[in-house]
Amino acid sequence: AAAPALSLQKIEDGHLNNSLGSPVQGDVYFPRLIVPFCGHIKGGMRPGKKILVMGIVDLNPESFGIRLTCGESEDPPADVAIELKAVFTERQFVRNSCVAGEWGEEQSSIPYFPFIPDQPFRVEILCEHPRFRIFVDGHQLFDFYHRIETLSAIDTIKINGDLQLTKLG
Predict the structure, then answer these.
(1) Which residues form the Galectin domain (predicted)?
(2) Cys bridge to 85: 38, 65, 77, 169, which one at CB 3.0-4.6 A?
């Protein structure tokens, strides 16, 4: 009578090992921060909310962009509340928005160009009542006044271009 109990024990062990093993396996398939990246902003934007983008600029970058959009739709294109585009050839960090298919006036004045090829960076987009406030590596670089009034509709972040993402928050 001892033998069947033993084999039952083995089956249970095997089952335990499998159940313990599966979360570990699950981590391997955890969504990586792959560029182009598209992610959901839970609950949308609101005053006081901050979006953090950390990454490393590619070795020979041309440009990269960070967009906050109202949904993920490509056709018709979702409204873009703010697009930040770092253009290395011109050393510009331009921003714009697109409402109902119409791009607004591009803004490009910056005190300095903060991005360096092959170097890490930290971009923070702070949402305030009248504007987005943009910080790079802890320094406030510029403000961008809202062109989309319904902040909670801004629920998607899209990132593309010549960079690796290391952290989003």
Answers:
(1) 37-169
(2) 65
For the chain, domains (ranges, CATH) are 37-168 (2.60.120.200)
Strand order in the sheet with 120-127: 139-145, 131-136, 120-127, 50-57, 163-168
What is the distance between the terminal CA atoms of the chain, rounded to a whole angstrom? 58
| Angle subtended at Cα 86 by Cα 84 and Cα 91, rounded to the nearest 5 degrees | 135
Provide the whole-model pTM: 0.80
pLDDT averaged over every residue in the chain: 86
